Amino acid sequence: MYIFEAIKKKLHLFQINLSLVAVPIIAIDGVIENKVQLPCDIRSNNNDEISMVLWYKEGRDEPIYSFDVRGRRQYSNARLWSSPSALGPRAFFVTATNPAHLSIDRLESTDEGIYRCRVDFRNSPTRKQRMNLTVIVPPSKPVILDGATKAIWGLEERYNEGSDVNLICEVRGGKPPPKLTWYLDNTVIDESYHYDTQGGLTVNHLAYPKIGRQHLQARLICQASNTNLVPPQTRLLVLEMNLKPLIVQILTKETRVSADKNYDVECRSSGSRPNAVITWWKANKPIINKEINNYPIQNNQSLSILSFIPTIEDDGKYLTCRAENPAIPDSALEDKWRLDVQYQPVVNLRMGETLNPDDIKEGDDVYFECIVRANPKVYKLAWFKDGKELKNNSTAGVVLSDHSLVLQGLTRYSAGAYTCLAANSEGKTASNPVSLQIMYAPVCKEGKSEVVVGALKQETVSLVCSVESHPAPLTFHWTFNNSGELVEVPHSRYSHVSAPGTPDGQKEYQQFRGFRLNYTPATEMDYGTVACWASNQVIAAGRPYALHNCSATEMSAPLDMEELGTKSGTGLVVRCLEGYDGGLPIHSYQLEVVSDEDGGPILLNKTVPAGSNGPTFEVAGLTTGRSYRLFLYAINAKGRSEPAILEPVTLKGVAMYTTGEYI
Ligand SMILES: *[C@@H]1O[C@H](CO)[C@@H](O)[C@H](O)[C@H]1NC(C)=O
Ligand SMILES: *[C@@H]1O[C@H](CO)[C@@H](O)[C@H](O)[C@H]1NC(C)=O
Ligand SMILES: *[C@@H]1O[C@H](CO)[C@@H](O)[C@H](O)[C@H]1NC(C)=O
Ligand SMILES: *[C@@H]1O[C@H](CO)[C@@H](O)[C@H](O)[C@H]1NC(C)=O
Ligand SMILES: *[C@@H]1O[C@H](CO)[C@@H](O)[C@H](O)[C@H]1NC(C)=O
Ligand SMILES: *[C@@H]1O[C@H](CO)[C@@H](O)[C@H](O)[C@H]1NC(C)=O
Ligand SMILES: *[C@@H]1O[C@H](CO)[C@@H](O)[C@H](O)[C@H]1NC(C)=O
Asked: Which class does domain 22-136 fall in?
């Protein structure tokens, strides 16, 4: 009550002062369509009574409203009047408040202006108060546009993680022009706007750099306000974002896998929004496979399961799981798995590359290479001929080394099917068989070269001649020999017999051919030796045949050589004929001289190169009267022939010694 009195006094003083100078003006804001109160103090200072309150609006001579209590005891009985051309029924003077006020309903823009109230007291002087009523027109609801396209922002639009937000907030109208403010959740982020008088638009352009995951579903609000009297106009945008995947992981990385087994490989990715697209790659090539199943799982994770059957070729390659948000460039994450594919050995056997498998003869050397691919490494490599395991045996010319087999000094029995076999922890594998065929001249089957067959005169005997050779004999004929007379048996008298079958396939390399002769002795002269001859033109390289027709001639004149160190030496010239060279050229000849008496040490060892003269040796320094034995050899790359022996040679004077025709 005390405070109330004090205010009253103060107001009174104030009014008196101003009524002398100028009536103060109170600014009042009202919002269009809303209600506004224009205050007017009607209290008297000294319990005086009001007779009348009159309202004026600047620009009109007549009052626009009157409150008349003359002759009434109570305010509630006051006579009220409102000018219909001004506020009409929208105005009502309220005395119950302090201060009293003129209430105007449904404010119109034409209501704006300077108002005056005049309070007439019964005794006290009249009081005047002035008010400046401003009618505020709130702005329309803001509109949000995409900063780049200027299109109205749609609900479905999304920002990529890391991109810049570029938005325009626009608001039309408003009196006075509104303030436009951008909020991110509850924080002001942009208060800069401009007003375009012509278009009546207020615009705030928001550029917010590099939004991150933390901004997902943040609320961006554009607020337009030009008064505190009514709530601001706002537009809300919930920031929808595309997020990059954060994690990608192959969950089932086995340290090793076996070829041709099925594996379900799982890969999980999280962090992407919308869910990551998972793809699989092998050695940087995409796996396009219906055996991939993708599942969205809890917490916005993606799971992909690849049903994968590794092959041998996959060993050492990388299997990659890639998670990507296709909306965000360069958002892919990868996890790689290096495949250790284990498999049974893959074995391939071949004959040495430098060899011609169609031209292998007895005495040759061959080698095989066993080519093995395996993971893990093979712990065993074995070799087989016709199913029988081969062992290292250098005396038999069988040498097994790392991944090769060497066969030295082939015989026709070396022919057969060769295989190698490799084993590792995944299993063992036998190679393809490689057949070794060895060419050799025909030989009588099973070594039976001579058979005695008895026959009566006029009896027909069936003579069968079987030979083995590779390749098969080209020519074949029969001869008949009766004490020195060798005659051809006419072709008409014999026939081919098919080979006695070789069902046991391992011997397929040995070609048997049989020939049958039906022979009927007619006279005594028809008994003798029947021989069969086969030839296949295989030249087996071997040592040369022995020299033959050797002869030694004593020389009267000493030679200019003193090999035996004897002073009065006598010389010999030894000449021979060459036999078959064994299929390889003869490169030298050798002579060994030993004493005939004691058969002792070699007295002279002499080698001469082969030349146009044929085998010719000159020997000096032999002791006259002593006997010697001369051993003569031909030598080619395969070795030394059997010796031709010239004995005994006794130097007496000029003489000539010869060997037999053939040794
Ligand atoms: C009334 O207020 C308006 C702004 O609301 C102003 O422009 C005008 O000058 C004021 N009039 C007076 C007389 O103070
Ligand atoms: C997953 O995505 C949905 C909407 O797609 C979201 O409401 C939720 O928070 C996300 N969860 C996680 C863990 O990110
Ligand atoms: C080696 O080969 C020779 C000749 O074929 C044979 O006699 C010998 O038994 C073999 N040695 C072994 C250890 O097999
Ligand atoms: C076979 O013998 C050779 C030497 O003669 C040797 O180098 C090789 O390792 C042996 N192979 C096997 C399997 O014993
Ligand atoms: C002919 O037969 C005789 C006696 O069986 C034998 O000594 C001789 O070497 C044979 N001659 C030929 C060329 O086969
Ligand atoms: C004879 O000489 C040759 C080479 O000229 C040699 O290889 C051979 O071993 C010698 N023979 C003997 C028994 O000394
Ligand atoms: C070899 O010697 C024999 C006698 O032993 C003879 O008949 C033959 O003609 C000789 N050969 C040559 C080519 O001189």
From this structure: mainly beta
Q: How far apart are CA 650 and CA 625, in angstroms?
A: 6
Highest mean pLDDT (candidates 352-366, 424-438, 634-648): 424-438
Note if the bond before 500 is cis, omega within 30 degrees.
no
pLDDT score of 447 more than 80 = no
CATH, range 558-650: 2.60.40.10
Rounded CA-CA distance 514/445 in Å is 9
What residues contact residue 25 under an 8 Å CB cut-off, 6+ apart?
114, 130, 131, 132
- Say yes or no to pLDDT of 501 above 90: no
Say yes or no: CB of residue 23 within 6 Å of ligand 1: no
Residue with tokens 């066969």: 407
Instruction: Give the pLDDT score at 539.
Output: 57
Sorting pLDDT into bands at 50, 70 and 90, what band is 289? confident
The CATH fold of domain 247-339: Immunoglobulin-like (2.60.40)
Q: How confident is the model at residue 114 (pLDDT cuts 50, 70, 90)?
A: very high
Instruction: For residue 446, report the phi and psi dihedrals to the nearest 5 degrees.
Output: 55, 30
CATH, range 345-438: 2.60.40.10
Q: Is the dihedral of CA 471, 472, 476, 481 positive or negative?
A: positive
Q: Which ligand is nearest to the CA of 58?
A: 1
Q: Is the CB of 394 under 6 A from ligand 4?
A: yes
- Nearest-Å Rg of the Cα atoms of the chain is 65
Structure-token pair, residue 626: 């002593």
Amino acid found at 197 = T
Q: Which region among 20-34, 65-79, 116-130, 343-357 has the lowest average model confidence (pLDDT)?
A: 20-34
395 lines ligand 4 (CB under 6 A): no
Structure-model confidence comparison of residues 586 and 179, the more confident one:
179
Q: How far is the CA of 630 from the centre of ligand 6 (A)?
A: 15
At 61-83, the pLDDT tens digits run 999 999 999 988 888 889 999 99
Tens of pLDDT, residue by residue over 505-554, are 334 444 556 777 888 888 888 888 888 877 776 655 678 888 988 988 87
Ligand nearest to the CA of 274: 2
Between residues 509 and 301, the one the model is more confident about: 301
Query: What is the rounded CA–CA span in Å between residue 137 and residue 38?
Result: 18
User: Is 143-242 in CATH node 2.60.40.10?
Assistant: yes
Q: Is residue 371 lining ligand 7, measured as CB closer than 6 Å?
A: no
Q: Classify 441-549 by CATH class.
A: mainly beta
Return the half-sphere exposure (C-beta side, CA atoms, 13 A cut-off) of residue 631: 17
Peptide bond into 176 cis (omega under 30): yes
Atom of ligand 7 nearest to the CA of 577: 13
β 127-136/25-31 pair status: parallel
Atom index in ligand 4 nearest the CA of residue 402 equals 9
Binding-site residues, ligand 2, Cβ < 6 A: 299-300
Start-end of CATH 2.60.40.10 domains in the chain: 22-136, 143-242, 247-339, 345-438, 441-549, 558-650
